[in-house]
Amino acid sequence: MRLPARRLLPATALTAASALLTGCFTGTQQATDDSGPGGKRIRVAMLQPPRSGLSPLSDDAFKLSRWSTAETLVKLDREGDARPALATEWKQSGRTWTFSLRDGVTFHDGTKLTPEAVVRALTEAATASPKPRILDGVDLTAKADGEKVTVTTATEDPLVPQRLSSPQLAILAAKAYRGKTVNPVGAGTGPFELTKVTGTSSATLDRYDGYWGGKAESPGIDVKFVPDGTARAAALRSGEADIVEAIPVSQAAVLDQDLVTEVPMPRTNTLYLNTGKGAFKDPAIRAAARAAIDAESIVKGVYEGRADVAKGLLGPALPWAAELRTPVERAEPGDPAGKTVTIGTYTDRSEMPEAAAALQQQLQKAGFKVKLDVREYANIESDALAGRFDAFVLSRATVLDSGDPAAYLYSDFASQGTFNLSHLKDPEVDKALKKATDTPVGDARRKAIAEAEAAVLATDAAVPMLHERVIQGDAAGVVNAAHDPRERELVTADTYVK
């Protein structure tokens, strides 16, 4: 089937969008440093502004990770296996894991990485309210043991190293934890030091010459938060930004294709249905919504073919999921006639309002009466978590935290999950999720995860529609920018601008 024509950005829109960035990078591009090939600072246009003052205990942690300023004990390789970072090795003994720390690491304030510093950071995360989602359902304690750190969980947990790779468990200097909030400015261990944050508009990072892994190629990073997707695309076209994340699919064709990289990612666009109250408390009405949704038309009409139709919650970035997936027995659709529902979504990803509008039409055709509530994510998340919508359209990373989807499934669908937008409380789902969480890493765990996915899908609490792709823009002079499906890396020590 022929795809719809791509929408081009008119010159007047380009001028207006570009104006949003005018002045934000002024002068920074001319900075030079003769000590390496990267004599210019890197100008980055980011999608979402900070939600929690760049606290690593929130989703802001992934910004700190993408700027290479905050680091974790462990990192993940492409396959999702744990590899050394601030910790060089580890071993398990029942419920306890022992980690050896890397020598010669200093925080950006000059203090040394010590077992006590690691324990402080992990304890702050483990006792936070709410906890970082990687610790959903996990009771974790950390103690200094000579020059090493021990991490103990209430029950034996095969995923402790992978959990500790989450940017939300970054290790920061003691100064970061003074007061009621966590302040990452000048407190990381990475190749770039966060030196200034200007509210929700910009951030500045300078090269940290004492980095344990060697001096970064670029002298620094200048970040501008640009929620408007048209403005981000315009910044790349006009040369005002060097790296642009999350280019909207509607703007991808406008750009020089040599500057655009598209990477399949473990991110699913899902319609979460509120099972706790309202119309979708009835399984038959949830089934009617699921039956009414035509995901293929949304992929073609909204995403212009730059996405994959979902067969389940886990997409092509996890090929084993399709191999293990089995048919799911669901409720028969009921009659939605006269049922009024409100769907919430957000403007930060430009495709989301369009996807919600398409869903509105599809559900209305099936007999629902549908209202939309669309806002910036920072202004709508609390209402979504509180269950104030009948349904919510969300673009959700499925292995963002640990490289393992069990944590995402637990967070989103367990009775005690902290991101349970569906307000699902189902004993069979909880049982399947616990089995997936407790099973050792390997084939048996993957099978248990597939079974947990099937248990969730059987409830129709969530209707997976499509799996997204990363669309990133890199200016012609950019060298070694990261293209990371997990959205943990963007600018690394090896990244520079010619």
Automatic annotation (TrEMBL):
TM ranges: none
PROSITE patterns: PROKAR_LIPOPROTEIN
Domain of life: Bacteria
Signal listed as a keyword: yes
Pfam families registered for this protein in UniProt: SBP_bac_5
Domain Solute-binding protein family: 83-418
Stretch forming the signal peptide: 1-31
Keywords recorded for this protein, A-Z: Signal
Keyword Signal: yes
Gene3D superfamilies: Dipeptide-binding Protein, Domain 3, Periplasmic binding protein-like II
InterPro entries with a match to the protein in the record: Peptide/Ni-bd, SBP_5, SBP_5_dom
PANTHER family documented for this protein: MONOACYL PHOSPHATIDYLINOSITOL TETRAMANNOSIDE-BINDING PROTEIN LPQW-RELATED, PERIPLASMIC BINDING COMPONENT OF ABC TRANSPORTER
Protein name according to UniProt: ABC transporter substrate-binding protein
Natural source organism: Streptomyces koelreuteriae
Lineage start: Bacteria, Bacillati, Actinomycetota, Actinomycetes, Kitasatosporales
